[in-house]
């Protein structure tokens, strides 16, 4: 029974020394002196704020992309014991002792280091020689811009890592297709492709470009499989379902999980939640939740409510009135109704309270049992403090003359009777019998007499003049059949009114709201709202000193100064390896010209290279050239502030194209021994120039040593580069 113990247990393993050596060199190049400088470097001032918010569990919204990348940076802070207490307000500010700088920068550095062996393996899986693969890895290793970007608390190196991992995984999966379909390794690499794509998109939406490239590639490969008569219909269906599961379903589920973890971690209210709906805010601990917890769910006749406009941008605001009236005549000579002003006010105030009244009854309190208001019911809205009724009539609004003025009605005993009946329309209702609910219901108020819709027009225009205290205009929008969030309101604060006497009611309106029911949003509701905010929330794009255009990137006519030592003049710049970038552009041009030449010749039935070499050439171009194109060309369509680091994913693919072109030239164009020897000598000289440029710019890649003034000036190889020269 124990006979197997008579022989020693032997484990054998194949170790790719090239891969191990490249990994070690990548780690050294990215991790060396990682804590230097111990100061905030460029966009660390931006991402560091989110890390601190994660540490304190405070909710935030970042319009730059999904939360997975931020969570990875926060993981570094968590592992380092960071408590989140640091004021991220200035580039160059010295880190306090409680900030674990090495830990915060570790994950981006590891991701950048692992890009080196990934580049090697991608070329191997594309069936190029180990020499070409080694060249690709060394070019990534010696790329100054990639080193700089991976040594700080930034997201680009993590994004590039997941992009390359997705490409490698798909290539490994594809190469297993013919001989090991549906094997364990086949499934592993297919699933890893989907996971890596989802992670890339979860770090930055730029990851979508490579994800789309791989989906198209997978689609083309499957299209060729359909023509394979050796595959049965059942087998094709299984292949289709496997790809759909791994490349679409699982990535979508994983993407949702990023938001689930994000929302689970950030459960506390903070300054960013003000742009979210009342329901979302009420689901967070503190903030609005402190006010709304225990409120009645169903709005009834006699309810005291505040009405928040759903649009919430550029600022949140509540339906508001105050005793002041519209001026008899506006500055342009138009007349007004001289009724009490109604505005949208961006701050919480006692004048934001309104009472929902039944037009057929005089009482302003909730009956027992309460009579809920439903979709389609007619109500009057009574201003809580002044007890005047919300009203609109055929008088032009002060700033929007094509819309009706909205006011609280004052009886001047003139021929302008009150028109204060409003129909409640629940926009997000499930049926026509839905009850108007606190926070959850989004409602429109349609004026019964004129069919005008209550709208916060000031959210998209100018504020009222001094006579309106610079508050936002509210109008009755005529003939509005469309849906716009500025016409939609939700009840934020709510209590059941108990006081019929005005003085007692004023005391009631000033008191906190606490009654009996609270309701939390589901995860999908919160995800949908947060995702929409991320996609639609736009910060004002302003010109930045180091912003650039996409055309500047190809020729590297721009750089970014990341950090400057306050005394020594040591500095860090985002600058690429000039020799590598010029070579990458040349390789792309050669690839394009050769491909067109081959295509024209093949059209004439002239085949300059073997069919296997042609397929290899096209597949490598599809991955490397296609990766460059999809990660670069979309920036010409984007209306946003652009920086050189946006080009790094694209240039990574372009660098991988260099050894592809060099091997092709050496194998198929250099036919004699002499030409091959000369070509090898040229490659050695060229690679020496790449290493020379890397060493030359290392002081501004790593920030040390500090260079004297003449050497700093000598680094300005282009007039457009901004090398910082300190004036003494």
From TrEMBL:
PROSITE patterns: MIR. The chain crosses the membrane at residues 68-88, 100-120, 154-174, 186-203, 208-226, 246-267, 578-600, 616-637, 643-662, 674-694. Its main location: endoplasmic reticulum. GO terms for molecular function: dolichyl-phosphate-mannose-protein mannosyltransferase activity. It is found in: Endoplasmic reticulum membrane. Belongs to the glycosyltransferase 39 family. This is Protein O-mannosyl-transferase 1. The lineage of its organism: Eukaryota, Metazoa, Chordata, Craniata, Vertebrata. The gene is Pomt1.
């Amino acid at each position: 029974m124990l006979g197997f113990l008579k022989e020693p247990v032997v484990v054998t393993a194949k170790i790719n020394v090239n891969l191990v050596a490249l990994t070690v060199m990548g780690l050294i190049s990215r991790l060396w002196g990682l804590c230097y400088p111990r100061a905030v470097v460029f966009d660390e001032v931006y991402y560091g704020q989110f890390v601190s918010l994660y540490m304190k569990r405070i909710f935030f919204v970042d319009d730059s992309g999904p939360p997975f990348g931020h969570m990875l940076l926060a993981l570094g802070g968590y592992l380092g014991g960071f408590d989140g207490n640091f004021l991220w307000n200035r580039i160059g500010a010295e880190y306090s002792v409680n900030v674990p700088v090495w830990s915060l920068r570790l994950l981006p550095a590891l991701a950048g280091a692992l890009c080196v062996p990934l580049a090697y393996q991608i070329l191997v899986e594309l069936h190029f020689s180990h020499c070409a693969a080694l060249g690709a890895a060394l070019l990534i290793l010696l790329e100054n811009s990639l080193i700089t970007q991976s040594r700080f608390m930034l997201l680009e190196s993590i994004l590039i890592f997941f992009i390359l991992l997705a490409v490698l995984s798909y290539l490994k999966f594809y190469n297993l297709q013919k001989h090991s379909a549906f094997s364990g390794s086949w499934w592993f690499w297919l699933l890893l492709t989907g996971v890596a794509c989802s992670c890339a998109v979860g770090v930055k939406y730029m990851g979508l470009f490579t994800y789309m490239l791989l989906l198209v590639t997978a689609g083309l490969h499957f299209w060729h499989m359909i023509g394979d008569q050796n595959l049965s219909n059942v087998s094709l269906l299984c292949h289709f379902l496997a790809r759909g599961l791994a490349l679409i379903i699982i990535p979508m589920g994983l993407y949702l999980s990023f938001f689930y973890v994000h929302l689970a971690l950030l459960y506390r209210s903070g300054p960013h939640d003000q742009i979210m709906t009342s329901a979302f805010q009420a689901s967070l601990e503190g903030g609005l939740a402190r006010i709304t917890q225990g409120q009645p769910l169903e709005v009834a006749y006699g309810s005291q409510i505040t009405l928040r406009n759903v649009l919430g941008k550029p600022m949140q605001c509540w339906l508001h009135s105050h005793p002041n009236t519209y001026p008899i005549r506006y500055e342009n000579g138009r007349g007004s109704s001289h009724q009490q002003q109604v505005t949208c006010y961006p701050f919480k105030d006692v004048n934001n309270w309104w009472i929902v009244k039944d037009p057929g009854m005089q009482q302003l309190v909730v009956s027992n049992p309460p009579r809920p208001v439903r979709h389609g019911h007619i109500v009057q809205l009574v201003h809580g403090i002044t007890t005047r009724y919300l009203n609109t009539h055929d008088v032009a609004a002060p700033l929007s003359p094509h819309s009706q003025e909205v006011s609280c009605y004052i009886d001047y005993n003139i021929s302008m009777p009150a028109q204060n009946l409003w129909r409640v329309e629940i926009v997000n209702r499930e049926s026509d019998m839905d009850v108007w609910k606190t926070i959850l219901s989004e409602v429109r108020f349609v004026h019964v007499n004129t069919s005008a819709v209550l709208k916060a027009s000031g959210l998209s225009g100018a504020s009222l003049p001094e006579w309106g205290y610079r508050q936002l205009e509210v109008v009755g929008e005529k003939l509005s059949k469309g849906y716009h969030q500025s016409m939609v309101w939700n009840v934020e604060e709510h209590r059941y009114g108990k006081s019929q006497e005005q003085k007692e009611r004023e005391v009631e309106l000033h008191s906190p709201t606490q009654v009996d029911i609270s309701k939390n949003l589901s995860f999908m509701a919160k995800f949908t709202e947060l995702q929409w905010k991320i996609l639609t929330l736009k910060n004002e794009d302003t010109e930045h000193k180091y912003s650039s255009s996409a055309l500047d990137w190809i020729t590297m006519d721009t750089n970014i100064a990341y950090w400057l030592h306050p005394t020594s003049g040591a500095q860090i710049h985002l600058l690429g390896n000039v020799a590598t970038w010029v070579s990458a552009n040349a390789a792309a041009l050669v690839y394009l010209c050769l491909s067109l030449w081959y295509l024209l010749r093949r059209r004439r039935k002239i085949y300059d290279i073997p069919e296997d070499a042609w397929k290899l050439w096209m597949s490598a171009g599809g991955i490397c050239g296609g990766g460059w194109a999809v990660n670069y060309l979309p920036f010409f369509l984007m209306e946003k502030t652009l920086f050189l680091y946006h080009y790094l994913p694209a240039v990574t693919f372009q660098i991988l194209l260099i050894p592809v072109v060099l091997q092709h030239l050496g194998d198929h164009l250099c036919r004699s021994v002499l030409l091959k020897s000369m070509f090898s000598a040229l490659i050695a000289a060229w690679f020496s120039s790449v290493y020379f440029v890397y060493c030359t710019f290392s002081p501004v890649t790593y920030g040390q040593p500090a260079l004297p003034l003449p050497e700093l000036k000598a680094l300005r190889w282009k007039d457009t580069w901004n090398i910082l020269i300190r004036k003494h």
